[in-house]
Specification:
With 215 residues, the chain is mainly β. It has one domain. The protein has one helix at residues 2-22; strands at 24-29, 35-40, 60-64, 69-72, 74-76, 81-83, 91-97, 104-112, 126-130, 136-141, 144-145, 150-154, 160-164, 170-172, 179-190, 194-196, 199-201, 203-214. Strands 4-3-7-8-18-15-12-13 form an 8-stranded mixed β-sheet, covered by helices on one side. A 4-stranded antiparallel β-sheet has the order 1-2-6-5. Strands 9, 10, 11 and 14 form a 4-stranded antiparallel β-sheet that branches. A hairpin with a 2-residue loop joins strand 16 (194-196) and strand 17. It is globular and about 45 Å long.
Amino acid sequence: MVRQILMALSVVAVAAATIARAHSVWIEPSGSNQLVVRFAEPGDAFETSPGYLDNLSTPIAFIFATNAPLATETQRKSDHFLLVGASPTNVACVETSFIVRGGRKPYFYARWQPPGTGAAKPLLTLDLVPTDKTGEVRAWFRGKPLGGVAATLRAPDDKEQELTTDSEGFLHFNANEPGQYLLTISHYREPLAGFHVGIAYKETSHNCSLVWQRP
């Protein structure tokens, strides 16, 4: 019996580690004209509460209703976090983290960018920032352009394209099809050790997403 319990716990730990490695956090509009935060492998079912959604810290969120960031409340629901009072017409950003797994502490950052907002500026530790050109986004890490890092673009037809930032952090792609786009960077790691809830980790990983809709 003890052996069976240990094996079950091992399976759960491996599954949780896989979740942290493969999943993304992103912001998207809901059917009720609100913004919600999702946690999943893009294209698969959303993580839920009770479940792996509960292993994410409550997202810290802010919106731009004017020219200054405005903190907004987040509420955990069955398969998302609701950004209270946020509208799809607002630029919105969140940051959250996953529990320590395999000696690594994963952090997630997400940005929603409404259409027609033009060039943006970095707002998150790891950020995918639209320029004023269609099909151009720039990656930033700790306020500096991030070159040579892999990214994935998921188009409205659910096809994925693998990209790499150039030496100045720019990504270029075709984004002419109407619908929702999801651009992600996963597992950008740095040798930053620490503790979380009494558990030590040897490195920190950063994951970010940018979502927008083309009319």
